[in-house]
Amino acid sequence: QVQLVEFGGGLVQSGDSLILSCAASGAMLSIYAMGWYRQAPGKQRELVARISSGGATNYADSVNGRFTISRDNVKNTVYLQMNSLKPEDTAVYYCQLGSAPPYWGQGTQVTVSS
Which residues, in sequence order, are CB contacts of 11 under 8 Å at separation 6+? Predict the structure, then answer.
């Protein structure tokens, strides 16, 4: 059974940094694309960053240059380094395993105060 568990959310101030981790069990992350998504209150879930099995990355325009997605296939973990956080980054962040069907973690809350 595939399980994804996110860590690292919290309450920070504008301009601070956070790193989120997503640890997987039951699947080898190395063969899948992985994504970080977020959902703010009253809004749809949106893609924040994605990394392919080969390491290619893409980002939402709103986070490009501030966030970095990476993966450690030995630790079976994907990360999201978030710098220069803004209040509009406040959301529940989810990691996704890009299998068919995809698997989701339970989410971790990130709150950025102004």
Answer: 111, 113
3-state secondary structure of 88: helix
What are residue 87's phi and psi, to 5 degrees? -55, -35
CA R_g for the chain: 13
Encoding tokens for residue 65? 């240059």
Write down the residue that tokens 């994504």 correspond to: 35
- Please report, for residues 16, 94, 95, 96, the alpha-carbon distance to residue 3 in angstroms, rounded to integers and kept in the order given: 29, 12, 11, 10
Give the C-alpha separation, 42 to 31, whole Å.
34
Task: List, for residues 16-61, the tens digit of each pLDDT value.
Answer: 999 999 999 988 888 999 999 999 999 999 999 999 999 999 999 9
Q: What is the largest CA-CA distance in the chain?
A: 40
Q: How far is CA 108 from CA 11, 36, 51, 59, 99, in A?
A: 11, 11, 19, 19, 21
